[in-house]
Amino acid sequence: MEYNEVIKSARGCIGPYCKACTVCNGAACKNTMPGPGAKGIGDLAMRNYQKWQEIRINMDTICEQKALNTEIDLFGKKFAYPFFAGPVGAVKLHYGEKYTDQEYNEILLKGCADNRIAAFTGDGTDYNVMIEATGAIGKLNGQGIPTVKPWDLETIKEKMELVRKSGAFAVAMDIDAAGLPFLQNLTPPAGSKSVDELKEIVKMAEIPFILKGIMTPKGALKAAEAGVQGIVVSNHGGRVLDQCPSTAEVLPSVVKAVRESGSQMKIFVDGGIRTGVDVFKALALGADAVLIARPFVTAVYGGQEEGITAYVNKIGAELKDTMHMCGAFSLDEINSEMIWN
């Protein structure tokens, strides 16, 4: 199954908000919420995509031929590629009636594990979402990364217990979800966290903790102070705050701040990354790995595990081709000289 077939198949069951576009650039869905669109005027998802396209590749094929290796070591695990499926929740609300969150997560986790990458799973106001997600991760011997929303500390403690039982090799928190309206109306309210609160959460986790939603060098350094093991440069796909810069625009300054501080945090980035060429660009800008969310939804809706395989093969082939044409035969050899920005 080719990915263009997956897209065509998804169009029959993924509506009404998502259009399963050939190029998932945020234009057709724009500010549709519910749906996959961005907040406010709706241009941030489009900006995320466009800014990756403005970065160009410096080709150099005068180099020794070597075996090409795209594998990455992450928190004691080895993966085939430096890209992972990002967390998505409330799929019935945003993407159509075909799957429940449990069904979606089970397909996503299994498909990603079969292709030697990992999936992040989502969270929601329905407590069962985390129970089901961690249960599905447990069935795969911990091959998945559950994402906990920034609830109050007592709720986080309860959800961390579910994470531990799953055997997950890492856990994430999308702290930028503090901008989601439904989180702000809870009792007690969920939302932003202080450095001291994050330190407490990191201790609760007992496994590598990834903080998603970092958009400034200052934010990255606060995350490092809190002791997290990884950050995701992310504006939540444009869904939590209007008029932010794109992730491609802020990534270099975040990388610089983290590396100069001496922190060993892993740096992920998401937002508008759609091809293996984009993955290459992100790594050349200093990221260790990337997250891709919306296209994996299309893959699940359009072909289940087979759809995921088609998408992973597409992105992987594009990454390998770009590396080969730039003289990079391992991820460590990708550097800033290989892009024109």
From TrEMBL:
Residues annotated as domain FMN hydroxy acid dehydrogenase: 47-341
Which reaction does this chain catalyze? (S)-lactate + O2 = pyruvate + H2O2
Tell me which SUPFAM superfamilies the record gives.
Answer: FMN-linked oxidoreductases
Read off the InterPro entries from this record: Aldolase_TIM, Alpha-hydoxy_acid_DH_FMN, FMN-dep_DH, FMN_HAD
The answer to keyword Nucleus applying to this record is no
User: Which GO MF terms does the UniProt record name?
Assistant: FMN binding; oxidoreductase activity
Alphabetic keyword roster: Flavoprotein, FMN, Oxidoreductase
Q: Which residues are noted in the entry as glyoxylate-binding?
A: 239
Required cofactor(s)? FMN
Asked if the keyword Flavoprotein belongs to this entry, the reply reads: yes
- A Pfam family hit: FMN_dh
Membership in a protein family: Belongs to the FMN-dependent alpha-hydroxy acid dehydrogenase family.
The protein's name? L-lactate oxidase
Q: Which organism is it from?
A: Mediterraneibacter catenae
